[in-house]
Write a structure and sequence with these properties.
With 379 residues, this protein is an alpha/beta fold. It contains 13 helices and 17 strands. Strands 3-4-6-7-8-9-10-16 form an eight-stranded parallel beta barrel, surrounded by five helices. Helix 7 (176-190) packs parallel to helix 8 (219-225). It is globular and about 70 Å long. It starts with a strand and ends with a strand. The mean pLDDT is 97.
């Protein structure tokens, strides 16, 4: 395996010839589209076709909505250990609210592939946003919790899920301990049936970090309460924020370094983004809104605009600027270089694995790099 960065004058043919590999391999690995134009600074995943023998075993989870394309799901499942179906909601009485679309095809496909299907539980309100009043109502009401636990068990058993992932965000500070108790209660209730319970954590760097995203998440308590945790190490660059890397490595590392002081490293999964953002410039706080782009789409934009892709050596992420219709844009996204840097954190800190938000768009270079780097755990 090699990561090659496109230089001036390079073509798919010349790169293949200089590395002694088939042109078809370069095209397939990197999902290039005829006539195979390249951007200066574009990172390509090159492989000789020889299989590697990775040593580090990693758990690999991917989140997906029930409107995922069947082809994307089928192409991704071979690289996953578990598939988290997003998402199941609940009422203040503890009644479970299933996704609007049928998720049975996802569960069946996962089971056929030896991948664990996971029910993702979220406190999403009718407006599609996280509702912390709903969290407060349930975690502080034993009757509602009991009802929710029984409904979870019934649904998991009926639909052949093999675990539950608890993704609650914007938890009120006063619910910090009740929420941790709730997670422990879910785990203890489902454990006799063999179900794994995980919890998603906002990316904290200290016990006292201020903000509604962080104050209700106690890393120490939740690390004890759940079987595993997901660090949501992404969204530094986000829809309403200024242009920057979605998951800058320096920021991600700070979260990991704090997390391993509070949680057993072998229970920690690292959050990995599978997307980027396109901002218009100048950025205006309160009115600017970035557009989500896939990693492939970002490269296509650079190619069409005829601009080079740059690489930030602190964030360890690719980015570029381009102009369209008189408007300046800035794009940050992920490529095999940024993924390689994130992957290196797993053995460095002894982490359990990783969780992708989300797998709705297939990016083959990432999965080939992952397969070349890790033994993908299936149990």
């Amino acid at each position: 395996m090699e990561i090659y960065v496109v230089k001036s004058g390079d073509t798919v043919d010349s790169i293949a010839e200089s590395h002694g590999i088939p042109v078809s391999s370069v095209i397939y690995n990197n999902q290039l589209v005829y006539p195979y134009p390249l951007a200066l600074g574009q990172a390509l995943f090159l492989s000789s076709g020889e299989s590697s023998d990775p040593v580090y075993a990693a758990w690999v989870n991917g989140y997906a909505y029930p409107f995922i394309q069947q082809e994307v799901l089928d192409d991704t499942l071979p690289y996953l250990s578990s598939l988290s179906v997003f998402s199941y909601g609940f009422t203040t009485a503890g009644d479970l609210v299933p996704p609007a679309l049928d998720d049975s095809f996802m569960i069946d496909a996962a089971l056929r592939s030896g991948v664990r299907p996971v029910l993702t539980l979220t406190p999403l309100g009718p407006d599609g946003n996280f509702n912390n009043a709903l969290i407060t109502a349930v975690v502080n009401d034993q009757e509602a919790r009991d009802n929710l636990l029984n409904n979870l068990l019934a649904t998991v058993q009926a639909k052949n899920f093999q675990g539950v992932d608890i993704d609650f965000e914007y938890i009120r500070p006063e619910d910090r301990i009740p929420f941790a108790d709730f997670v422990a209660e879910v785990r203890n209730f489902l454990a006799p049936y063999g179900y794994h319970v995980s919890v998603a954590l906002a990316p904290k760097t200290s016990d006292t970090q201020a903000g509604l995203l962080y104050e209700g998440k106690d890393y120490g308590l939740l690390g004890e309460a759940a079987d595993s945790v997901l660090l949501m190490t992404y969204e530094w660059g986000y829809t309403y924020g200024p242009p920057m890397a979605v998951a800058p490595l320096d920021k991600v590392r700070q979260v990991v370094e704090y997390a391993v002081t509070r949680i057993t490293p072998s229970k920690i999964d690292l959050g990995i983004p599978n997307y980027g953002y396109d901002w218009t410039l100048p950025f205006v706080q309160g009115s600017s809104r970035a557009t989500t782009v896939s990693n492939l789409e970002a490269v296509r934009i650079a190619v069409e605009a005829g601009v080079p892709i740059q690489f930030d050596e602190v964030a360890m992420s690719p980015f570029f600027r381009y102009e369209k219709d008189g408007q300046l844009h800035e794009v940050w996204f992920e490529d095999v270089r940024s993924y390689r840097e994130k992957f290196s954190l797993l053995p460095a800190y002894g982490l359990r694995g990783m969780g992708y938000w989300q797998i709705m768009r297939f990016f083959r270079p990432n999965w080939l790099l992952l397969e070349d780097t890790f033994q993908i755990r299936k149990s």
